[in-house]
Amino acid sequence: MKKLFSEKMKANPIIAGVKDINNLEDALNSECEIIFLLCGTIFNLKEIVQKAKDKNKIIFIHVDLVDGFSKDATALKYINDEIRPDGIISTKNSQLKVAKSLGMLTVQRIFIIDSLSIETAVKASQMINPDAIEIMPGIMPRITKQLSSSLDVPVIVGGLISEKEEVLNAIESGALGVSTSAKTIWEMKL
């Protein structure tokens, strides 16, 4: 699955970030190969994941943002065994470690607010060894370049990306993928 994730991101680096369930159908029908689900509840996750799989999309659930689950190993085991997403996104190292132990793909989301955040991102990535790291906000080409050259995992950028130029800058700076909730970007051709 890790190889397929990488191949799909290389084929189309735009990742549909769905933060409103009303935009799910647009994401499912978009050219995006990967969906980051940034919403959902214990009641609708299984159906959402199945819809994505029916469209041959890779789907990650941002477990920090899902309603109705505790943030522990039992919830992750249930998500893995019963809901069956391709992976999870989290800012929490403990969640990522458990998900990796369950064989799930992991994306570590890190907010870059200062130079210490950059150092922390590198150390955390080396410690957790996620399948990818997502840095936010994604409109920092210099930081993207610095981190992508410092890390052994793919870099995804996200947050505040709404223009084609921002996507191109991110890719040129070393990002393998760009996650955005801007539907106009989902159909962008590179």
Characterize the structure shown.
The chain is an alpha/beta fold and 190 residues long. It has one domain: Aldolase class I (TIM Barrel, Alpha-Beta Barrel). It is 43% helix and 20% strand. An 8-stranded parallel β-barrel has the order 1-2-3-4-5-6-7-8, surrounded by 6 helices. Helix 6 links the parallel strand 5 and strand 6. It starts with a helix and ends with a helix.
Task: Briefly characterize the structure.
The chain has 190 residues and is α/β, with parallel strands linked by helices. It is 43% helix and 20% strand.
The amount of helix comes to: 40-55%
**What's the number of helices?**
9
| CATH topology annotation | TIM Barrel
What is the C-level CATH assignment?
Alpha Beta
Overall mean confidence score, pLDDT: 96
Tell me the overall shape: globular
Helix/strand structural class: alpha/beta
Instruction: Please list the strands of the largest sheet in the order they lie side by side.
Output: 1-2-3-4-5-6-7-8
N-to-C order of helices and strands: HEHEHEHEHEHEHEHEH
CATH architecture: Alpha-Beta Barrel
> Can you tell me the residue ranges where pLDDT is under 50 for at least 5 consecutive residues?
none
The Cα radius of gyration reads 15 Å
In total, how many beta strands? 8
What is the beta-strand fraction? 15-25%
Distance between the termini: 24 Å
> How would a textbook summarize the main sheet?
8 strands, parallel, barrel
User: What's the number of domains?
Assistant: 1
Q: What is the CATH superfamily classification?
A: Aldolase class I
